[in-house]
Each structure stands twice: as structure tokens, then as C-alpha cells.
Specification:
Helix content: 40-55%
Number of helices: 15
Structural class: alpha/beta
Distance between the termini: 27 Å
Radius of gyration: 19 Å
Shape: globular
Number of strands: 7
CATH class of the largest domain: Alpha Beta
CATH architecture of the largest domain: 3-Layer(aba) Sandwich
Largest sheet: 5 strands, mixed
Strand order of the largest sheet: 2-3-4-5-6
CATH topology of the largest domain: Phosphatidylinositol Transfer Protein Sec14p
Oligomer: single chain
CATH superfamily of the largest domain: CRAL-TRIO lipid binding domain
Length: 288
Amino acid sequence: MASKREMYICSLPPVAKQHAAEYLHENEEKRDSDICHILDWLQGQSHLHARRDPVNVVRFLRGCKFDLEKTKRKLSNYYELRAHCPEWFSQRDPCLPEIQELLQLGVFLPLRRRDSHGRLVVLIRAAVHDPKKHRQSDVFKVGKMTLELALEDDETVSVFGVAAVFDLSGVTLGHAMQLPPHVVKKAVHAWQNCYPVRTKSLDFVNAPPHVNIVLNIFRRFMTEKLRQRVHVHGCSLASLHTVVEPELLPREYGGTDGTLQDLIDYWQHHVTEKREWFLQDERYKATS
């Protein structure tokens, strides 16, 4: 059985390999046996209809610093989340009008270049949608779809993690009302306990003075480590540029890497062209 399994082929550049070894406890000599251990365990979890390709398994191992028991818990959490939250993980056809609208708005935009720490920087435009028209669950869905595609595109994201920048321009009471505590709790649970990528920072820009009222709800469900990674920059782009280099950002954020519309067009096209991948991926989830 083991001989028929697909072998893992590492695509990491040398600097990422070194980082994975130093900070994630990735041992190249032991990695294949760790992959086999997780695949053997999955074989016995009949309720988890999980992806079995080695790249995906390694992604979860790295997200748990190669702690096998933590990896099992995170895999269980992830596939159970996919089963228990159909509002995020079903009807993921990118051609659906409600998804195309949010892609056109650019609610979730990974930047095209990595920061000086190797991290994927994601621009989350949290208030660009109309709360009277767009469901928050669809906003989360588009964000998760885009993140999952970014993880598929670049293996280094599983090594260096993600830096999230939340733009709160135009935030209203209507947006806040889309995020009652039970929704916030579920969203934080997904970041912390389910997805196989580490959130290295959460930076909030164009934040109104009362932003901490909403942020405190998020903080309530965060671990102390994640709470320490939350930073509010008000409306200061200069402050944002201390954590995200301007050469990575679009012009609208004081950067030099093209325009916001360039970034929106790229991700709308990329997500849409991967329609078949999303439709196939939808079947992976826990079963009763």
C-alpha cells in the first residue's frame, strides 16, 4: 500500500527549507515517515473525507510544527468545519453571481509579492461590500476560496505564513451587525484551529475611533499569542508602511505595485479559471 502512495516532492527554495527546519521542526530525513504516519491515521478515520495528496498533508504538518497529534486535531477540525459550515464551503462555483460580485469588489486580495519575511500579505477590504445586499457568509466564502487557491499556488505560504491587512474604510453599523459574537467565534476558530497556515500579523488600517468595540469581540476568542499580533493603524498609511513595504502595495495604499484594479482583475480571473478545482474540492469534508 505504502509503495503505491504518491511521493512528496519538495518545491521550496533553499531559504524556505532552512526556515522550515529551524522554526517548524521539519526534518527532511523524517518527513516522509511523518507523512505516512498521517496518511495511515487518515485511513482509519472513515468519517473524514480528506485530501490524501502529500503536499496537503505537509501543509498541515508545517502548520503544527510537525507535532503529529496536533496535526491530527487540526485535520479533524478543518474537515469538520467544512461539514458544519455549508454557508462557507458549499455552492463554491466561482461563476455564481453572488461570488462574481464579491470578486469584482475585491473583498480579499493576496498581494502578488512576498514581504521581507517571506510572508503572503493579504489585503482584506472588510467594508467594501453592501451589507444590505451581500451576505457576510458569502464574503467569508470568497475569502476562504481565494486563500485556499493562494496556498495551492505557492508552497512557501505554508512555511512563512500570512500577514493580514484589514482595510476598514467605509465601515458602518450595518457591517458590524453582520458579525454577531457567534459568527466572530466561528471565524476566529477557523483561523486558529482549522486552517493549516499560521497568521503572523493582523493589521487594521483606516480604522474608525470606535473600532475597538468590534475588535474586542474578536480578541475575546483569540489566543494570547494571536491577540499580541493585532495592531491598529488608524488612517496612517505611513504607519502601515512600517509593517508592509510600499513596493508590495497597490498605489491606492501608497504603494508602487500597480493599481488596486489590477489586483482585483488578477484574482477574479484566477479564481474563476479554477472553477473545476473548486467544484471537485467541495467534496472534501467530514461525514456523519
